[in-house]
Amino acid sequence: MSPSRDVKGSKTKMADTANMNTNVHEPPDVRTEELLLNMGPQHPSTHGVLKVVAKTDGELVLECEPVVGYLHRCFEKCAESGSYVQAVPYTDRLDYLMAMGNNLGYCLAVEALMKVEIPEYADYIRVLVTELNRIGSHLIAVGTFGLDTGAITPFFYAFRDREMVLDILEEICGQRLNYNYIRPGGVAYDLPEGILDKISTFIDHMEKSLEEINNLLTYNGIFIHRTANVGVMTPEVAIKYGVTGPNLRSTGVKRDLRKLRPYSIYDRFEFNICTGTGEYGTIGDCWNRHIVRTQEIIESIKILRQVLNAMPTEGEHLAKATARKFRPPKGAAYTAVENSKGELGFYIASDGTDEPWRVKCRAPSFHNVSVLPALANGTMLADLVIILGSLDIVLGEIDR
Amino acid sequence: MESSAIFAALKTKFGEAAIDLNEDGPEAFAMVPSELIPDVCQHLRDAPEFDCDLFSCLTGVDLKGLKGETDDGFEVIYNIESTGKAHCVSLRTRVAREKPEIPSVSSIWETADWHERESFDLLGIVFTGHPNLVRILCADDWIGYPLRKDYEFPTEYHGIVCEFEGNEDGTWGGHPG
Amino acid sequence: MPLKKNNGGPPRQDLENENPDPLTKENVIITSVDKALNWTRQASVWPLTFGLACCAIEMMATLAAKYDFDRFGSGVPRATPRQADLMIVAGTVSHKMAPRVKRLFDQMADPKYVIAMGGCVIKGGPYAKYGYHVLQGVDRVIPVDVYVPGCPPRPEALLEGLFKVKELCYNEKLSDRDRSKARPKVFGGFEWPTKTKKEGQSA
Fold it and tell me: Which residues in chain A have Cβ-Cβ distances shorter than 8 Å to C66?
């Protein structure tokens, strides 16, 4: 034990101050006990019904293990029990923050089996709604990450802007969250009148608003201290655990399926792949994961501007081949898209009937949460919450 | 690397008879015997010309009752990708229904750990050599493997009735009356 | 001296004449204990921070800007069930989650209220038929006071559900405040419901 623990008389205290510099790195010899801490499934920081079992020693996390399955709602069984179109609403409820992206991923997988030609107008609508939804999804990630770090105000700013996205999407397809809008062969309905002007007004607003959120949260000194150099993920660890999306890009790996294997009409638009730069902290830490998401909102706005400029004014919104009951030929394929959380893949096996034989969803969050022990073991308990928040997981697609 | 070139290289390494190619469908794949899976996977990951470091997806499919299929076992599909070389490989293997055992690849890719647990949970495929092969999605004491085609839905779980109640006329959903 | 009913209008000359005390002239309301307590309770129904799935996002939207639950005194989501009055079961309840939901409900102090938000919680929703792992209605595990349908319900619908809870609060009597006694026996205590649903759902 260092002498600074002795608190008798003022003379000793003065000696303490003199000794402090030499003893400052010596940990006090205090015996502690291991404690098994059960975080969740009801916990405000687990972003749903995730359970984390952490073995702690004081404030240190020695080991932790995510336990999933509390929201297992049988997506794969439901999807193979109905027709191809009937499975679309179930895909909405996988990653319910990015329902349009799920619709798109599933429909592209069905179309890969069908080899159906999509009308150009429908392709533009798809990109339009998906990128809008991506902005909404990233706004939730940014807002709730602020909540995790103790900043409540950015949450309200983010939700204020997200409500504008929801208003636009609701006008397009009639729902606020689970859209069921993109269908195999196109989209369900044509765009309503005057919606493009509203989108253009929104993206102008969003650019200014994002600056506001950045000033309030991203470049806030307290926030940077709380998140920089916390939970550093190397590219090797990320790839080993199958981490994709903004989490992988924050480690410096330039992997975006929209560029790597352009699907739909993403090859027509110019945008950057945002990667962690290490402006603050280290590449691959919580702050860099956060900044990649805010930058991707800007890239989505860029894509939206190009869509609005290049979009044909009218056209067919649904291919004739899929307007009625359809039967893809026998075969199976794996198709992946870049969702807001990462690589969303669907493996669909067709037996030649109008119902899929097997639908398997490769959910990005399923992999993003599995990396948690690799990042959180050995950190402080409070950092576990920050790391979990920075991974931006959605339990709907982890448990399916 | 094109998938045909990858498969050709695999054939020279593991022998003509071991790898059965199929390039007609929407996705080209190589059919590999289940006991060879770890070797092929290890080679795909470690050989510098393949460099398959990202394990994308593992899917189990129940073949029982599939039209035009005499096999009633399971098919397991491995989708593997190389982030550096940007190519994808799809491997498939089959196991018998009576003894659905495949050597685990979780020591090669960490990602496969949870995927194999999921396939075990939902389809009952046993991955030998897996460090922790327990249920992942369903409750620990769940009975049966739900994604099998002959799965019977539970009528009761811990005293809670699970039987589905539709509308009186046998339809499902909508507004009754 | 009882005050005459004024209905919120301007001060009446006759009342001022009747009550000459300047301190109590316009500041005293005479009512029953029931009404006074219920009025305070309904004005601060604190919800439990308890989200399960998609509906939880709509619940968050209701708590956030634009819809602002706080306008109605419910903007203080509590992280522990022991401080909460209202449980909004928002999202699909799976069989794995059901015991936890029941435990959280048991940990809440009476008087407590439950809103079943969304189709899944009410009757299994889209997962009713093929969702082997989905509980077909949370009322098979805990008693529900207000059902809010939708998939997910709009924030306005959830607000309406909150108003229904406020109504329940307001109409209660102090004498029967232990609502657990009024609830069906199968849901009380720590036992799992063993009877079939039709028998169990008598109330």
Answer: 159-160, 163
